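Before relying on records like the one below, remember that each one covers exactly one chain. Contacts with other chains, cofactors or solvent are not represented anywhere in the record.
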Amino acid sequence: MNDQPWWRGVDPGHRLTGKRAFVTGAGTAPGGDLLGIGEAIAVLFASQGAKVAVAAIPHLKRAGGGSIINVSSVAATRALGAGAYAASKAAIQALTRDWALLHGRDHIRANCIVVGHAHTPMGTTDEAGRERRRLVSLLGTEGVAWDIAWPAVFLASEESRWISGVDLPVDAGATATTALGIHMLNRSGRTEGELGPSIPPSTSSTSPVT
């Protein structure tokens, strides 16, 4: 039996070695075997060697630059009856663009991940609810916390050095179409897909994203 932590050896590419970034709005919830977005990002950043700023923007300025990664929700761009939650997430997207403008010349990039209907401890966990959620996306696959964490790694890395002020939808294409489009897709019988695991196998030696 392998007693090593399940995340040990996850894509040890050290893409973030020496990089500085901070992530806001990445919700998580304690308990059970489900992995929240915030925890997944923390695990990947730790394994990749990123320095996460506590003092945030002043710290990044003193360090000579870095990356701000805000986490929003499709509730900010589509009506879901989320009220104040939706308004708060829309505000995060507006702040992202402002920070990109105000701090870009300090070599600080600011981007926002707009999360779709992913399987996390904060959402519906029953099988019927998960299936409904899966079928509202173009890919027909269920997103998990890792599917949000890996784009955060990309936005913190040198690979995204020329990207700032962007709202990046991570939603399996759900917001790229309309309710009618999804209805027509599902009526066509193209409903194959899969539900995603909440935790990758401990034997994984590469990316945990499925």
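The first helix runs from residue 37 to 48.
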